[in-house]
Write a structure and sequence with these properties.
The complex is a heterodimer. By secondary structure, chain A is α+β, with helices and mostly antiparallel strands. In chain A, 15% of the residues lie in helices and 35% in strands. Chain B is an alpha+beta fold. Classes of the chains: A alpha+beta, B alpha+beta. Chains A and B meet through strand 4 and strand 6 of A and helix 7 of B.
Chain lengths: 128, 359
Amino acid sequence: MADASYPDGLLYHPEHDWAQIDGETATFGITWFAQDALGEVVFFDPPQVGVQVTQGESYAEVESVKAVSDVIAPLSGEIVEVNADLADAPERINDDPYGEGWMVKVKLADAGEQQGLMDAAAYQAQLG
Amino acid sequence: MVAAPSDTLRRTALFDRHVAAGARLVPFAGWEMPVQYAGVRAEHLAVRARAGVFDVSHMGEVETRGPGALAFLQRMLSNDVSQIAVGGAQYSVLCREDGGVLDDLFTYRLADDRFLTVTNAANHAKDLAWLRAHADGFDVQLADRLDDYAMLAVQGPAARELLAPLADGPLPARFHTAELTVAGVPALVCGTGYTGEDGVELLCAPAGAPAIWDAVLAAGVVPAGLAARDTLRLEACFHLYGNDLMESRGPIEAGLGWCCKEATGFVGAEAVAAARAAGPAERLVPFAFTGPGIPRQGNAVVGGGEVTSGTLSPCLGVGVGMAYVPAERAVVATEIEIDVRGKVRPAVVADKPLYRKAA
């Protein structure tokens, strides 16, 4: 497992999810803190492409050996791609939570929602 | 998801060793216990391939001694206690009058009139009270030995080979015990375990536990946490009290009729005999998913029944578990479906154990 990190340039949701904005779409994943708290991820149950997700609501489930956690959407929109590689290698969520462990790409519904998210410094301050 | 440390949690004699080994410590049955060190999967596979050591000092011990010890335990425990020779071990359940399971237990016979029974941590106080409430009329002394013993489980195909050089005598065979000195520490060594692998469990004074722990690790055994203990026991189809066993269910439906000898007249024997004769409405079965997903305790079985334990099997790579299902469906190879939080996952009733070493 990599050391704790919270890259600049991402937007963070208080439920320990990140979004990387790229024009009208964004990539979502869970933060280092979330994967560390969860422990070894053994299963990622993705949503289907075309599904609408809502900011602050669950869009997927991630499971460790012992526990199931909902994955919360940091922003609203429509799923346009899911990381199919996680089906066979869910441990990428632990190994590289901001890179190969990305979960979905979403066509954003409301650019204004981004105002409610935090930058890396604010998110880390929240973690204490 | 991160539990705050609590002043009220008990720590085992190996707490400092767990911290030093990088354990993630969690509250468990009133104790602060190591749930994992390097990682659940690595620890699980290490026990299957070679050897791991678990601190299970949270488990309780009750000593029964006196001229009436055998008669008393025969009345209390479901199995035929007279069949335990001195230096032997036996599994049984403790039942209510109605057959409901209060706990599942290993009992070791230390002498003709002296037995040591290992309880589940969460049940220890309840068991002790139950035993004491039934002791009138028997010439026995019951002693709570929880504080007198630490307990280590060294498990895996290489466990005996790695442990043997540390002991001053031969290790006991399976389901036998031996009083030995291990790494300089007097210990009751028992040929028992909860992983489906060969190995031993060691009971010793808490002050001696760190010396055994250090020597076992130095011999090449890896520390393994409670999470790996759970995945290992589930692959082996061993019951976990609080998941697969509970007061509202009896031993027959749990598949534990083999350790119930109603002719001994134990508390609950009549109810158990009736359940055995009538056949229970539901039976506990192991199952494996045939597709994706992971079953969890509390998931419903479609058409009736409930999952009591579930995980992703590190050895099989699929979701596995145990569930109570209607008796007519408790047949190996029966296709069932599990409702995992709204998603229906196909599964098949499996034979015991779920994981078996390649011959």
